[in-house]
Specification:
Elements lengths: L13 H11 L10 H11 L6 E4 L6 H7 L6 E5 L2 H11 L6 E5 L12 E7 L1 H5 L5 H17 E11 L3 H13 L3 E6 L14 E6 L12 E4 L7 E3 L2 H23 L6 E6 L6 E9 L11 E5 L8 H4 L1 H11 L3 E7 L7 H13 L15 E3 L7 E9 L3 E9 L5 E7 L6 E8 L25 E2 L7 H8 L15 E5 L5 H9 L4 E6 L2 H10 L8 E5 L2 H14 L8 E6 L10 E3 L7 H9 L1 E13 L2 H14 L2 E6 L6 E6 L8 H15 L12 H6 L2 E2 L1
Parallel strand pairs: 1-2, 1-4, 2-3, 4-5, 6-8, 12-13, 12-14, 20-21, 20-23, 21-22, 23-25
Antiparallel strand pairs: 5-7, 6-7, 8-9, 10-11, 11-13, 15-16, 16-17, 17-18, 18-19, 24-25, 25-27, 26-27, 26-28
Length: 692
């Protein structure tokens, strides 16, 4: 039996609907859900004493159920199909004496003005507004004008709809321009999830007298999980909010039927502010054979650790899911702008929502475990936030790592999943002569997190590799002397500080384009300048070009200025496949200037972060043209690759010699009384170096 129209225009034809209802017979046809799903919304806006008009009633049971449940009785139903009106008059008969069915076109109704308190439309607007042709839009305008005419001031037009973008936008623009209050409800649990994927919405348009002038529009949305409406500032934002919920419903439907091949990411937003509160990644592990007890779990990432490889990369999350032993793992990252009430509070907040992401075949009422590291949600304290004209919004925050360690991090919010700088914090040392507490006193409260910077510790693996590269400095003995080192890119200052403190006679010049970063490094990361440490606030491109020009101006026998030049500078252009350094730093004319200011036996150390394979090949080819000797050290688990470039091929050394030089350098740096971390095994850092 073919009930579909031959064209969308037939939805407005009485002949089509007569044929539709004759062929369908007495079986009710429910557009967009039945009374139980719609009742929680309808009872907010329909009072028992209201006079209700149902437009395009069809043979739906909605009016009958509203009547029988005592929601209201004075209900008038209209439709353009004579067949369905006669059918419904027979079905209702004397059972519902206060309810009537009339053959009438809603575009030209016979009712007097201001006759109803409620107009209810279940799918009729969607059937009328099938496209955005001029004739269709004119028909919608006529429908809205008639609804407005027959409604009293303070009355409500309740429209049940799938909320296609053009339908929602047309309705909201029309009524909001007339001064009506517009609220959109998402209907909870609407329809059969197996047959009907898209969520159902109810537009609630409340009629007010139009105020002359430009009164602000009142536009609100009520998601299904909350009663309190959220105010939105424009029609476009309202349409976008509805579209987000439609995409989420489609995603949940897809995830409930088949495993996801690629990881799915989504944000759950705060109800009050609308800002992201949780970021979820859905990870299916084909390596895990699912059973009743290991189908599904939720993993809460401790605050501040979302940037770690295990939690912040696809491969890391895949490994996490496999090691946790669950077929589907949903990782949950917490946002620094939000407050959380511990693991129990997060579990209560997320339990209902994450179940919508459950894998196919999960038994009903299956208890889903919530996992984390150490069983808590971690510690994150934002110490400082500001905006730089060059770097944008940034934060300085303290986070708790494994065990009792705390770290301070600099994060640029334009790339919030990348830690720009990191330093370990020193545990507080008790003051000498401090009296011990008496045994009968209460136990002290937990110690406050440390705040002093541990300048001896390099948190970033790529910084350790860059320091190890200094063993390539010329001469038979790699022990540190009066080296001149140029570092382009300050960040928190950890790298230049370490070189300054451990290479006790080295003179370090730092170039930083952003004066805000010098302030951050000084105030929050323990950085300071002195006789052997100077910061030049300048564009690295301009600074190197100026130095190269000075070298060219000197007599031919004049030596170049630097033993080591280090680039650890990020790109502000996130559209390029290379985030470190900016592409201009890798152009051949500029690299020739770098070579000009580097001593013949010196080393140019570069932190390269490039995800674009072709771009990376081009960068390496350019480097080879300028520097005859090129070593590379990949950083395990990261995109970073440290390149060691030397001006002369005569300095070539095999891995054995590199290891010996690295051990000699490390031995000199590890002086008695000077802190040294075992993770600084410089020889190990250079074992994986390869010559390009």
């Amino acid at each position: 039996m073919d009930l579909l129209p031959r064209s969308p225009g037939e939805f407005g034809s009485s002949r089509y609907w007569d044929r539709f209802f004759r062929q369908r017979g007495q079986l009710p046809f429910e557009w967009y859900g039945a009374f139980p799903e719609l009742c929680p919304v309808l009872h907010k806006y329909v009072r028992h004493r209201d006079k209700v008009l149902v437009v395009g009633c069809g043979n739906s049971e909605l009016s009958e159920q509203m009547y029988d449940m005592g929601m209201c009785e004075d209900i008038v139903n209209i439709d353009i199909s004579d067949a369905v009106i006669r059918q419904m008059q027979e079905r209702s008969g004397s059972k519902r004496p206060k309810m009537s069915y009339l053959l009438m076109d809603m575009l030209q109704m016979d009712f007097p003005d201001a006759h109803f308190q409620v107009v209810l439309d279940k799918g009729t607007l969607d059937a009328i507004l099938t496209d955005e042709e001029e004739a269709t839009l004119a028909k919608a305008d006529k429908m809205f004008a008639e609804i407005s005419r027959v409604l009293q001031v303070g009355g409500r037009y309740l429209c049940v709809s799938l909320a296609q973008a053009h339908v929602l936008k047309k309705a909201v623009e029309y009524f909001s321009q007339e001064g009506w209050v517009v609220r959109v409800h998402q209907v909870a649990g609407s329809g059969d999830k197996q047959q009907f994927v898209l969520p159902v919405f109810v537009y609630v348009m409340t009629k007010f007298r139009k105020i002359p002038g430009s009164a602000p529009r009142i536009l609100e949305i009520c998601p299904e999980e909350q009663d309190k409406p959220m105010r939105v500032e424009s029609v476009e934002r309202l349409v976008a909010a509805v579209k987000d919920r439609q995409h989420y419903a489609l995603l949940c439907s897809q995830l409930s039927k088949t495993p996801c091949g690629e990881q799915v990411s989504l944000d759950l937003c705060d109800k009050e502010s609308g800002r992201p509160r949780y970021t979820l990644h859905v990870v299916d592990s084909p390596l895990v054979k699912p059973s009743r007890d290991n189908r599904f779990a939720i993993f809460i990432i401790p605050q501040g650790r979302e940037t770690e490889w295990l939690f912040g990369t696809e491969e890391g999350r895949r490994q996490l899911a496999a090691s946790a032993g669950f077929g589907r793992l949903v990782t949950v990252a917490l946002h620094r702008e939000q407050r959380y009430e511990g693991m129990a509070g997060i579990q209560a907040e997320l339990s209902g929502k994450v179940m919508e992401l459950a894998p196919p075949g999960l038994p009903a009422r299956q208890q889903v475990p919530f996992l984390s590291v150490g069983g808590d949600i971690g510690v994150r304290t934002v110490q400082h936030c500001d905006t730089s004209p060059l770097s944008g919004e940034y934060v300085v925050e303290d986070v708790k790592g494994d065990g009792s360690s705390y770290f301070r991090r600099l994060i640029f919010l334009s790339n919030r999943n990348v830690v720009q700088s990191e330093a370990r914090l020193l545990a507080p040392v008790p003051l000498s002569g401090q009296k011990k507490r008496r045994k009968d006193k209460k136990k002290p409260s937990p110690a406050e997190p440390p705040t002093a910077i541990d300048k001896s510790y390099l948190c970033c693996e790529h910084h350790k590799a860059m320091v190890a590269g200094l063993c390539l400095l010329g001469g038979p003995n790699p022990l540190p002397g009066d080296e001149a080192v140029l570092v382009v890119g300050l960040g928190g200052g950890s790298l230049p500080l370490f070189i300054h403190d451990y290479f006790s006679r080295a003179h370090v010049a730092v170039v930083e384009i952003d004066p805000s970063m010098l302030e951050v490094a000084t105030r929050w990361f323990g950085f300071s300048q002195g006789d052997r440490m100077r910061v030049h606030v300048s564009d690295g491109l301009d600074y190197v070009a100026k130095l190269a020009a000075e070298v060219f101006a000197l007599p031919p026998a004049a030596p170049a200025q630097y033993d080591a030049i280090m680039f650890d500078v990020d790109s502000k252009d996130l559209t390029v496949g290379m985030s470190c350094p900016p592409p201009a730093f890798m152009e051949k004319p500029f690299l020739l200037k770098v070579k000009t200011i580097l001593k013949p036996e010196g080393v140019f150390v570069l932190n390269l972060v490039c995800r674009d394979v072709r771009l990376k090949e081009s960068v390496l080819a350019t480097l080879r043209e300028v520097f005859p000797l090129l070593y590379a050290r990949r950083i395990e688990g990261e995109v970073n690759e440290i390149l060691f470039c030397q001006p002369s091929p005569e300095g070539r050394r095999d891995p054995t010699e590199l290891g010996a030089r690295a051990r000699a350098l490390e031995g000199d740096l590890r002086q008695p009384g000077r802190p040294w971390d075992s993770s600084y095994a410089l020889a190990d850092m250079l074992q994986a170096v390869k010559i390009l």
